[in-house]
Amino acid sequence: MNYPNGIKKQIKETPNYGNRGMTLEEDINISNDYYRDNDIAIIYKKPTPITVNKVDFHSRCDATITEAHYLTPSTTDYNGVYKGFYIDFEAKETISKTSFPLANIHTHQIEHLKRITKHGGIGFIIVSFTKLNRIFILMANDLIAFITTNNRKSIPLEYFITTGKEIPISLRPRIDYLKYISFERKENGNDTKEEKRK
Questions:
Q1: What value, to the nearest 5°, has the Cα angle with vertex 185 and ends 102 and 141?
Q2: Contact, 102 vs 90, CB < 8 A?
Q3: Can you list the alpha helix ranges (DSSP code H) found in the chain?
Q4: What CA–CA distances, in Å, run from 189 to 184, 192, 196?
Q5: pLDDT (tens digit, 9 = 90+) per residue, 85-95?
Q6: Which of 41, 47, 56, 189 is a Cys-bridge partner for 35, taking CB atoms 3.0 to 4.6 Å apart?
Q7: What is the phi/psi pair of residue 99, to 5°?
Q8: Beta strands, E only, 83-133
């Protein structure tokens, strides 16, 4: 803004935390760091198991893996513990503005999430509609219910809006997904619903 006598003043814009060029994975990793640092939950990205075939040794303390292959298909991206519950989830991004292609998630990952929930764990997916700048969490049971009752090759955005929960992007943590999970604890044969984290 220009003032009289040639004085210029800079106007600080409110930072837009919704578009800082970070990937969903980076955002979740930073959020998980926050959860651990604040003793809220212990959740990590799973390492992908590989077998090393060739290594170039540049020196005694410098080596580079030049050839490797995956041991088994990966299950999901993240797992850990929250409030005594086992947490397991997959994170995905899509450039579509209208739906999430089911081709983006593998059958063995869906089966894995099904087993997690069967054994009392918390399974879900987090999907980022990157062009809409919107992120949703969809519990495994709702994901499986859609797949088993629909012949569609994609999950419409509307299903995420009505059945899932939208996660607003913030600063600390960046993606507070734990605030939006739903879960139950089985005690003495009865299902006891736990409250969401305040």
A1: 15
A2: no
A3: 24-37, 107-118, 140-149, 157-162
A4: 12, 9, 22
A5: 999 999 999 99
A6: 41
A7: -160, 165
A8: 85-94, 99-101, 122-129
pTM of the model: 0.73
Q: Six-digit token pair at 95?
A: 């450039």
Query: Tokens 């809220």 appear where?
Result: 40
Give the pair of three-digit tokens for residue 124.
Answer: 């879900």
CA 116 to chain centre: 16
What are the structure tokens assigned to 2, written together?
A: 């220009």
Domains along the chain with CATH numbers: 20-46+65-193 (3.40.1350.10)
Tens of pLDDT, residue by residue over 121-132, are: 999 999 999 999
Q: How many whole angstroms separate alpha carbon 63 and alpha carbon 83?
A: 41
48-79 burial code (b ≥16 CB/10 A, e <16): eeeeeeeeeeeeeeeeeeeeeeeeeebbbbbb
